[in-house]
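Catalogue entry: protein
Contents: sequence, fold tokens
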Amino acid sequence: MAKGGLGRGFESLIPTELVDEEFDPTVSEDLANSSLVEIKISEIVRDEDQPRKSFDEAELEDLAVSIKEHGILQPLVLVREEGKYKIVAGERRWRAAKLAGLLKVPAIVRTLDAQNRLELSIIENAQREDLSAIELATAYAKLKSQFNLTDKEIAKRVGKSESSVKNTMRLLELPDFAKKAMMENKLSEGVMRPLIKAEESLIERAVPMIVREGWSARKVEQFIATNKKKSSARVVKASTFVKEEAKLTKKWGHEVRISARSVTFSCKNEKDLRELLKKLG
């Protein structure tokens, strides 16, 4: 973890939404040109070229209440310009912070030249063929969260479709251990995408086998589908059959198990079995 970094180095202040520097292909350049500081709200101005002019007042009030209780969980991104700090990303947070009565807000500050250079660097990196899928997802996320670009704008800059950009960024929903495995083993987006909505316990089981056995995307899908069925069957049994099993066990004096379309009685020995058969007969 690099001190003063723009990802994990800020965890105590920003728990969730900043780009994780471990997967950030431009972190070195960013560290050299950015600083995290507290800036007086009175020194911050909106970007008049920003197309969004109106903000929902009720939503701002709700955010202001949250900021009063928890503070600002994601810093603004500002550029120094003519003695002021112009907002690149975070105008909604800035407005809500004013409503909450804050005098200062946390911010990532860059010069305008550094901001422009960094944006170009991220775009160039996003077009590299040797970039891992998780690094590419991080680059897209950085363009979105710190440069205020839409998915459509990102797609245009990197020469990809908007759906491709969105799908790649979804990889960031994977747990950290899966993202690290992607980075270390250059696992493809196609192979890992089926895991995005899977239970973490399934992901923990699947990732080592993907790495060790070189699973295809189809193999991963089959693994998830098969284990979802088993999991669903256990849930159905837990909610439907447990009570019935208990009733039958009590009635017949032998342990009863219900599985699929079968009812099974367990007997300790042959004598118990003969007694049960008499009862059933």
User: Anything to note?
Assistant: The beta strands are 35-40, 44-45, 76-81, 84-89, 104-111, 255-259, 262-266. Confidence is low (pLDDT under 50) at residues 1-17. The first helix runs from residue 27 to 33.
